[in-house]
Design brief:
Layout: E1 9-21, E2 34-46, E3 50-54, H1 61-68, E4 76-81, E5 84-85, H2 91-98, E6 101-104, H3 108-111, H4 118-128, H5 136-148, H6 165-178, E7 183-187, H7 195-211, E8 215-219, H8 223-229, E9 232-237, E10 240-246, H9 247-252, H10 257-264, H11 305-309, E11 315-318, E12 321-323
Parallel strand pairs: 3-8, 3-9, 6-7, 7-8
Antiparallel strand pairs: 1-2, 1-4, 4-5, 9-10, 10-12, 11-12
Helix pairs in contact: 4-5, 4-6, 5-6, 6-7
The protein binds adenosine-5'-triphosphate and magnesium ion.
Magnesium ion (MG) binds next to α1.
Length: 335
């Protein structure tokens, strides 16, 4: 594989921020407060890679995926997509880029219109973007996409409720792929499926990526799934990126204590990675008023006074391995 400096960048995020206003006076926030769903995220996604994104519920994964493809307006920072600065681009200017950026959801059923046939669902975007007119050519194209996604021809006139969860996810994938995108956000795309079906859908996504030259942002709270499919993995905590690296390297030698704790909770048969499960103390803090210094310090077994006071910088600790931690050199000894 070419080194990162030679590879095309599909997505580049620079200090990306997405805040949501806290609507009413509640226990966690007053008027004018904001939920810091993404708070200064910077990384690149290279053409042809699967970039895995992990972190606990509420850390900001879905928000990041939606903001990258401009389903949300960023609060600050910059998003470059395929060479275009789309940070503040109008919907009108975004329109021609829309087909290039697609999203696959956890619950395809919720996003598949029950009143439309599979053919109508897959064809809808093609008609809306004027890529086809109604007719035999469109039908032929839809059947071809269905075939690539493992759906039989007869299904074209059926409705989503007539299918199993795995098949519905194939319909959702076919709908996204029909538009011939460059970049696909897979948001918990297999999380609702049985384990045996999960691996079928993961294999389908892998095959399609190669055949259709796709680039994925693969979001999941399930580290074993992410490891299975990702080339590189980013770990998020409370709206921030805490670690990023190659999937193998990150898995075998986590640099951030949070990554290590997450990995220790994954059941494994891996002899290299045996060890105690690291139980993190305390709850996930508020993303309205995040902790001072390192946001992870309230739960970190390695935390010191410095962690309470100083925000750790995002640095390249080893080639291709990024981390934001004052004490990453001690993570090995942890647990
Ligand atoms: N539209 C919104 N308005 C207000 N707050 C929001 C909105 N969308 C997300 N949030 C908040 O932003 C934070 C991040 O949410 P997000 O859904 O991105 O997390 P996640 O990592 O995808 O979680 P999960 O693993 O449960 O899917 C949460 O505190 C959430 O409540
Ligand atoms: Mg989510």
């Amino acid at each position: 594989m070419a080194s990162n400096t030679e590879r095309n960048v599909v997505v580049e995020l620079r200090d990306l921020k997405k805040y949501f206003p806290v609507k009413s006076q509640t226990l966690i926030g007053g008027m004018g407060d904001t939920v810091k769903a993404n708070d200064g995220v910077s990384f690149k996604i290279y053409e042809g890679e699967t970039f895995g994104l992990v972190g606990e519920s509420g850390c900001g994964k879905t928000t990041l995926g939606r903001t990258i493809i401009r389903l949300e307006k960023p609060t600050g920072g910059q998003i470059l997509f395929d060479g275009h600065d789309i940070t503040r681009m109008s919907n009108r200017n975004l329109r021609p880029l829309r087909t290039d950026m697609q999203i696959i959801f956890q619950d395809p059923y919720g996003s598949l219109d029950p009143k439309q046939t599979v053919g109508q669902i897959i064809g809808e975007g093609l008609l809306a973007h004027k890529m086809f007119k109604k007719g035999p050519e469109l039908e032929e194209y839809i059947l071809d996409i269905m075939d690539k996604c493992g759906l039989d021809d007869y299904m074209i006139h059926r409705y989503p409720h007539q299918f199993s969860g795995g098949q519905r996810q194939r319909i959702g994938i076919a709908r996204s792929l029909a538009l011939d995108p460059k970049f696909v956000v897979c948001d918990e795309a297999v999380s609702a499926l049985d384990v045996s079906i999960q691996s079928q859908i993961l294999n389908l996504l892998k095959r399609l990526k190669d055949e259709e030259n796709l680039t994925y942002l693969f979001i999941s709270h399930d580290l074993s799934v992410v490891k299975h499919i990702s080339d590189r993995i980013g770990v998020m905590y409370l709206g921030e990126m805490v670690e990023l690296g190659g999937a193998e390297a990150l898995y075998n030698d986590p640099l951030h204590p949070y990554t290590k704790a997450l990995l220790s909770a994954v059941p494994t048969t891996d002899v290299q990675r045996k060890g105690e499960k690291i139980i993190l103390k305390g709850d996930i803090p508020s993303n309205v008023h995040p902790p001072s210094g390192c946001r992870f310090h309230t739960r970190c077994p390695l935390a010191t006074e410095k962690c309470r006071q100083e925000v750790p910088i995002w640095e390249e600790a080893k080639p291709g391995r990024f981390v934001a931690c004052h004490h990453y050199e001690q993570t090995k000894e942890m647990g």
